[in-house]
Amino acid sequence: MLAISNKVSIPDHEIEISAIRAQGAGGQNVNKVSSAIHLRFDIPGSSLPDFYKTRLLALRDHRITREGVVIIKAQRFRTQEGNREDALRRLAELIRSVAVVPKARKPTRPSLTAKRKRVDEKTRRGRTKELRGKVDLQ
Questions:
Q1: Where are the domains of the chain?
Q2: What is the pLDDT of residues 72-92, one digit of tens each?
Q3: What would the pLDDT profile of 28-72 be if each residue is shown by its tens digit?
Q4: DSSP 102
Q5: What value, to the nearest 5°, has the Cα angle with vertex 128 and ends 112 and 124?
Q6: Which residue stretches does the UniProt record annotate as biased composition, category Basic and acidic residues (predicted)?
Q7: What would the CATH number be for the domain defined by 2-99?
Q8: 7-34: string of b/e by CB count within 10 Å (b at 16+)?
């Protein structure tokens, strides 16, 4: 059981975990031991609340396929158990990230004083630049 929040959790049978060989350098051990973890989680077929499902499917994340399957490959640690925990933690973080509703932005306007200050600064700067022109010696 993967706990997402106090009320939301994912049963183990909805998360498909398989061990695969890790990529990259690692000597003799990497060629014969399947220590990397390949995690698959089907969003539409899960027991997550609809709020989480719609937000997850709307995410533009490279780990989510068009069919709505989250694929996470964990190979950071040397042990299979370490990689399994890492993959589950990353899945939980991904799901928790969509639970936070972004605060709505309230558009604001600059104050009258700020507008005046900006225009005064522009005219002051313009006068300074005017003085940099060629000097007429007639």
A1: 2-99
A2: 999 888 888 999 999 999 999
A3: 666 677 888 999 999 888 888 888 888 888 888 888 888 889 999
A4: P
A5: 10
A6: 118-138
A7: 3.30.160.20
A8: ebebeeeebebeeeebeeeeeeebeeee
Take residue 79 and report the two structure tokens written for it. 């042990």
Q: Could you tell me if 70 and 53 are in contact, meaning their C-beta atoms sit under 8 angstroms apart?
A: no
| Residue 135: partners with Cβ closer than 8 Å, 6 or more residues away | none
Q: What is the DSSP letter of 3?
A: E
**CA distances to 33, 70, 75, 104, 122 from 81, in Å:** 13, 20, 11, 41, 63
* Cα 120 to Cα 70: distance, rounded to the nearest angstrom: 55
| SS3 per residue for 7-67 | CCEECHHHEEEEEECCCCCCCHHHHHCCCEEEEEEECCCCCCCHHHHHHHHHCCCCCECCC
DSSP state of 110: -
